[in-house]
Specification:
Length: 237
């Protein structure tokens, strides 16, 4: 049985995960909180985490994880979540590269994977998941939506949490055996492909077309007659 730390409030489940790692914890421990007061997105971005959402982190100590595959693994977590949500609610979520889930035009989920690398492997990994489940729209930032708003009904939080945990765990095992088997489905569900995108490269801004996702999870963009393999976010036009 995995150990689950259940909290009513925390700064950030990813930050607490780091503290647990530093003080010594087991592979597979999970932290879930009703709210986060300092939820984090990538870089310095904030993640708004009011009551009703699913805010959790999974701690992993992989034995054989190629750091080059971290971006792909983040997409796989997004794919698994979109399928679990579909199974549990009937709602179709698209993946927005590199780490978001969209329900129609609204962002309903984000994944924040943090890791520590040692030599050419991953010493630890934190999978941070935010899902706007039973969250009131007026508590969310502009451009965000929730499952409850779309369904006009609440979903049993515990049921979807345990389904997400077991589906992510299963995908983690499958990923270590064959990391590429998820790629066709990721591409199929990715709303960024085929879109015009704007991105920064060194001190230039380029506009191109997102044409594919490669075996490392990078976005393949064609711009000005060249092909670029991107790891950082792009703006969809
Ligand atoms: C993400 O970052 O989308 C990853 C979010 C991961 C959150 C989880 S919750 C559990 C764990 N503990 C943490 O502290 N974090 C993880 P990014 O792609 O950088 O998107 C951040 C942007 O999403 C913000 O700048 C807002 O525009 C928007 N945003 C913030 N809160 C949101 C919400 N609840 N729903 C939808 N969009 C939101």
């Amino acid at each position: 049985m995995r150990k689950i730390h259940r909290l009513s409030s925390v700064g950030s489940t990813n930050d607490l995960a780091r503290t647990l790692i530093a003080s010594g914890c087991q592979n597979g421990e999970v932290i879930i909180s009703d709210i986060q007061t300092h939820g984090r997105g990538r870089d310095v971005k904030k993640w708004i985490s009011p009551p009703g959402g699913l805010w959790f982190s999974i701690i992993l100590f992989p034995t054989n994880f190629n750091p080059d595959k971290l971006a792909l693994f983040s997409l796989i977590v997004g794919l698994v979540m979109s399928k679990t949500i579909e199974n549990q609610t009937g709602l179709y979520c698209a993946i927005r590269w590199p780490n978001d889930l969209y329900l129609k035009e609204k962002k309903v989920s984000g994944v924040l994977i943090e890791s520590k690398l040692r030599l050419n492997s991953v010493e630890w990994l934190i999978i941070g998941v935010g899902l706007n489940l039973n969250v009131d729209k007026n508590l969310l930032p502009e451009g965000a939506g929730s499952i409850k708003e779309e369904l006009k009904a609440e979903i049993e939080r515990e049921k979807i949490f345990s389904a997400l945990l077991s589906d992510i765990e299963k995908a983690y095992i499958d990923f270590q055996e064959d990391s590429l088997k998820f790629l066709p489905e990721i591409r199929e569900r990715c709303l960024s492909l085929g879109r015009r995108v704007r991105f920064n490269l060194d001190d230039r801004t380029l506009i191109g077309e997102a044409v594919n996702i490669d075996e490392k999870g990078r976005l393949v963009v064609e711009a000005e007659g060249k092909t670029y393999l991107l790891l950082s976010d792009v703006e969809l036009l």
